[in-house]
């Protein structure tokens, strides 16, 4: 079993829809959780960073962490074609930057 | 803005060739990393470095070596390229051990024939 599971998609939704991306994990020692966005032929860029259970909002993006269920989500409101990318969840422990575990990524396409 | 620059975006090499992938960061970050990215497997850590001349193996170091002679530069070396090393290689840096925030380069897509 992988430490982090992420549905690879692809996921295709119409512009303006709410998008929900999810990851599950098995290691309860993870202390912080991240979402990276990767455009085609580019490197990943950090989108959201959170370290506690609950919600964190940044503009149209909301990251949600449920440590009791070992489940994290990224919600995108009012999705735009420019949101079309691969979204990677990632998680790790403090003092162990080398031990960040990435999900395999979900490919998202927003149809105009 | 942090900039991580990978010198080669696309390379095509033959089996057995020695391959150098260069990475330079301009924000004085302590940590540098090399990952490879393959469909369905996500990002897997090859090597990382917390300081100049310091290196540690990641999850898949076999067939690779690294060099960090200067703080800003981290090189990945494939001593004898093989077809199973065809992949996207991503360099990243981060400012300290306690942060999970990685700044990635644009990637080097290597094809080994």
CATH class of chain B: Mainly Beta
CATH superfamily of chain B: Immunoglobulins
CATH architecture of chain B: Sandwich
- Quickly count the domains of chain B: 1
**Low-confidence region ranges of chain B:** none
| Main sheet record of chain B | 7 strands, mixed
Output the structural class of chain A: mainly beta
Major pleated sheet of chain A = 6 strands, mixed
Overall CATH architecture of chain A: Sandwich
Mean pLDDT value of chain B: 92
Question: Any key phrases for this structure?
Answer:
heterodimer, A: 112 residues, mainly beta, Immunoglobulin-like, 6-stranded mixed sheet, 11 strands, 54% strand, B: 113 residues, 7-stranded mixed sheet, 0% helix, globular
Structure description:
- The complex is a heterodimer of chains A (112) and B (113).
- With 112 residues, chain A is mainly beta.
- Chain A has one domain: Immunoglobulin-like, CATH 2.60.40.
- Helices cover 0% and strands 54% of the residues of chain A.
- In chain A, the strands form two sheets. In chain A, strands 2, 4, 5, 9, 10 and 11 form a six-stranded mixed β-sheet that branches. A five-stranded antiparallel β-sheet of chain A has the order 1-3-8-7-6, with no helix packed on it.
- In chain A, strand 6 (54-58) and strand 7 form a beta hairpin.
- Chain A is globular.
- Chain A starts with a strand and ends with a strand.
- The model of chain A has no long low-confidence stretch (mean pLDDT 92).
- By secondary structure, chain B is mainly β.
- Classes of the chains: A mainly beta (112), B mainly beta (113).
- At the A-B interface, strand 4, strand 5 and strand 9 of A face strand 5, strand 9 and strand 10 of B.
